[in-house]
Amino acid sequence: MKAIIPLAGRGTRLRPHTLTTPKPLVRVAGKPVMSYILDDFPALGIEEVVFIVGYLGDEVRRFVAETYPNLKAQYVVQEVQDGTAGAIKLAEPFVDQDLLIIFVDTLFDADISLASQLGQEWAGIIWAKEVEDYQRFGVIVTDEEGAMIRIVEKPTEPISRLANIGLYYIRDSGLLFEGINHTLASDPGPSGEFYLTDAFQYMVDRGARIQTAPVGGWYDCGKVETLLETNAHLLESGRGERAADASVDGASSVDGAVRLEAGAEVVGSTLGRHVTVESGTRIHDSTLENCIVGPGTVIRGAHLRDSIIGGNSVIQGVRGRINVGEYSSLEGSAGG
Fold this sequence. Notes:
By secondary structure, the protein is of the alpha/beta class. It has two domains: 2-220, Alpha-Beta Complex (Spore Coat Polysaccharide Biosynthesis Protein SpsA, Chain A), CATH 3.90.550.10; 240-331, Hexapeptide repeat proteins (UDP N-Acetylglucosamine Acyltransferase, domain 1, 3 Solenoid). It is 19% helix and 33% strand. Strands 15, 16, 18, 19, 21, 23, 25 and 26 form an eight-stranded parallel sheet that branches. It has a seven-stranded mixed sheet with strand order 5-4-1-6-11-8-12. The termini are far apart.
């Protein structure tokens, strides 16, 4: 089984961090978002990945080569942002077997091993999460056996609460690309883009059976506020830990759901719940809660909440909520 991972988007909702870092390499709980997925590939028998790159694509290539040297990586550049169908179409020359398609805006608790157990009557799997706010998502309408009938984008009526999360296994890749070609030859959607889900609909309309499978959790990494929520979940789920050489003086207080990486220094400070402090960062005379702080940063005399601070920054005397990228310098008041 091969994997296709589209990465060409600019990640505008995560600016300023994505001005210098591709969205899939933005870190949460001390680890790039994409690594939470790639780290599972060896156990799944996935040895080859086709990355659809664009904006800051060279950074993705460098990261994969350095961090996953044993992974066979193919790269295709998406020059025109014409939607998810257009992105996956670019991978067609590399496809000669079953496919796992993963959009890495989110993390999920999903049993991908279901793909190896799928009966021959099925053409693929779409993983889905039941949600209350169904109007925000593309939802999957199923029959009594859990097979997809159709996908409806942002319905106004509760025809289904099964949200499409962007994780797919496709056994019949030939029919998939036939559906993609049909989609690309049709009129684009309301946003001017071509959707991969229309290719799935094409498959179903021609008799393919695509099974829906549940996910235990689904965690958005595409916006500042949801990245902080995902950071909190990961810290509560085992990523909250203190490196052996991280130092906390006797005048400081650190909550249990906090991550302190190598060389971090906490002096006269209070770290409340859900704070990630990356390597080499120094926090003095400050209070932080629900924050992500990049490596090599200095924070002094600050009281911060619900904030993301890029690496190698200097933050002094700031109170409230801030969102600053790498190599930032901020002094005084930034709101309360």
